[in-house]
Amino acid sequence: MKMLNYLARLSGLALLLSTAACGVEDQADEAGPRLSVDKSQVEITRNGQLSTGSDATILVVANKGYEILSDQSWLSVNKPTGEGYQWVTIKAESNDTEAPRTGNLTVRSHHLVENIKVTQTLAELDLARVFYAESFDWAIPIAKPGSDPVAAGAGNSNRWNIYSDDKGKEAWTANSKLTDWNPERKSINLYMHYIHFNSNSNFDTGVILPAIDAEGNVNARLSFDTCADGGGNGDTVPVVVEIIEGPGTIATTGKPISDAMIPTERWTWNPMEVNLIGISSETKISIHTNGEGANKYCRWFLDNIQLKEVPTN
């Protein structure tokens, strides 16, 4: 989950925002070096990957170039040097010892230094398939200054609309496999590392996930984070998961649609999950609000979508 060591990450992202405002590619002689990384701690499994089966990565932002040094022979990265915005993959040999081990990556840019603690456990890789995962981290390099209202605890309009803003449109087309559940409204916006739905006229919004790559029918768990937008106590945001096409049901209801889940913690990510039974490559799954026209203001944020197989016993 992206909330790992969130306070440390916010510090890095604050510096990243100032970098974006000044232009990370600025090579003028008078421009001083700037350095930011998006994580200070990473935990990996015995085989060197995250528990989800994906590679562990860090985002390094260095306008004057960087180098990464490791204090352990078993720990390295795929891009030990670079410049600008760089996604760097952490590489680790298999942990064949009898205990967890720790290594440190030191990121340097001139006189600036950032440290990343990497802990490799004895946990085995979770072999359950991840059919789909989306963290929206690809939006970080184009983010406008101050475009993390959830972390700031206050709304703002420093965002890119994926329909009307060229940067938002290009980033969404190039990186996202989601489709708009209510495209007529053109209400999806990009913030720092999540998306936002601007519904303020009695309509509902959401996204549709891409088809899964699976033979036959499988069971899966869909998890994601939500946060309500709006003034005062926030908008009422009744979020549902719905199978809008193809086979499958929601485990708790036995129907194609879940019960409504309402984010209640103000300016805090609210984790949600739904188990799906008997879905296939023909199934279309949506995450959307279901106010049925009763909520004039139904603005909300969405992040960290993951659809993962639940093996049957």
What attributes does this structure have?
mainly beta; eight-stranded antiparallel β-sheet; seven-stranded mixed β-sheet; disordered N terminus
Task: Tell me briefly what this model is.
10% of the residues lie in helices and 38% in strands.
Task: Tell me what you see in this structure.
The protein is mainly beta and 313 residues long. The protein is 10% helix and 38% strand. The chain contains three helices and 19 strands. It has helices at 6-22, 149-152, 166-175; strands at 35-37, 41-44, 57-70, 75-77, 81-92, 101-109, 112-120, 130-134, 160-161, 179-180, 188-190, 195-197, 206-208, 218-228, 239-245, 249-250, 270-279, 284-289, 300-309. The strands form three sheets. Strands 8, 9, 11, 12, 14, 16, 17 and 19 form an eight-stranded antiparallel β-sheet that branches. Strands 1, 2, 3, 4, 5, 6 and 7 form a seven-stranded mixed β-sheet that branches. The longest helix has 17 residues, at 6-22.
Please state the oligomeric state of the protein chains shown. single chain
In percent, how much strand structure appears in the residues? Answer: 35-45%
Number of strands: 19
Give the N-terminus to C-terminus distance in angstroms: 26 Å
Average pLDDT number: 88
Number of helices: 3
User: What fraction, in percent, of the residue positions are helical?
Assistant: under 10%
Shape call: globular
> Low-confidence parts lasting 5 or more residues at pLDDT below 50?
1-28
SSE string, helices as H and strands as E = HEEEEEEEEHEHEEEEEEEEEE
User: Could you say which structural class the secondary elements and strand pairing correspond to?
Assistant: mainly beta
The main sheet comes to: 8 strands, antiparallel
Rg measurement, Å: 21 Å
